[in-house]
Amino acid sequence: MKNLFQAGKLLLLDLASTFFFLFLYLLTKNITLSVLLGMALGAAQIGWEFARKKPIDTMQWLSLFLVLGAGTATLLTDDPRFVMIKPSIIYCVVGIVMLKRGWMNRYLPPVAIELIPDVAIFGYAWAGLMFLSAALNLIVALNYSVTTWSAFMPTYAIVSKLVLFLIGYVTMRTIAIRRRGRLAATPS
User: Fold this and answer.
1) How far from chain centre, in Å, is Cα 178?
2) Is 53 left (phi over 0), alpha (psi -120 to 50) or beta?
3) Displacement of CA 120 from its chain's centroid (Å)
4) Rounded to an integer, what distance in angstroms lies between the CA atom of residue 133 and that of residue 127?
5) Which of 26, 114, 139, 146 is the most buried (most CB within 10 A)?
6) What is the value of pTM for the model shown?
7) Are 140 and 149 in contact (CB under 8 A)?
8) DSSP-assigned letter for residue 145
């Protein structure tokens, strides 16, 4: 569970500039200000890592380039859709990474890997959710206002991931408990 929270924290930090943009836009309704400050936060995060002499992870670089690219396109065209489409790109990249068999193993305790290694393919459900989220984000970004998108997508993102996490956790735990019971009942 500790590893899962650590991974969630890192993902939230990678997406902080996007969330910051959304918060500012909802608060001010000023696209230019929101984009500029979101871009500044993305650059500041990388600068902070450099100052601390910490390695910059691939996802951090990707996030920065997406923030700067989408932000610049938004400023040049005066079209916030570039910022709105950026999460679809991120969802696709994350979904592709999640297609790798066993990616969930680092988030599972050793007993789960021992008892339910076959159930860890639940990671494919996560990949599917990422691709579904990318498509849904694109549909909403291209067909609705910034205000509608900024209200709907964060809510969907949180709820869908929480629901899938709970389903996965309960499913894997239930199967692990049953298998452990069967192993204990089996004479040696």
Assistant:
1) 31
2) left
3) 19
4) 10
5) 146
6) 0.67
7) yes
8) -
Q: Which 8-state DSSP code applies to residue 122?
A: G
Angle, alpha carbons 162-167-170 (nearest 5°): 120
CB-based contacts of 149, cutoff 8 Å, min separation 6: 84, 140, 141
Please check whether residue 24 is in contact with residue 40, taking contact to mean a CB–CB distance below 8 angstroms: no
Which whole number is the average pLDDT over 30-59?
Answer: 86
Q: How far apart are CA 41 and CA 18, in angstroms?
A: 9
The first and second tokens of residue 20, run together, are 């910051």
pLDDT value of position 128: 96
Q: Could you tell me the two tokens for 42? A: 């993305």
In terms of Cβ atoms closer than 10 Å to its own Cβ (0-12, 13-18, 19+), residue 145 is exposed
DSSP result, 82-109: HHHHHHHHHHHHHHHHHTSTTGGGGGS-
Which two structure tokens, joined as six digits, stand for 85?
């489409």
Token representation of residue 133? 């989220």
pLDDT digits 0-9 by tens, 74-124: 788 877 787 788 789 878 988 888 888 877 776 777 877 788 878 767 889
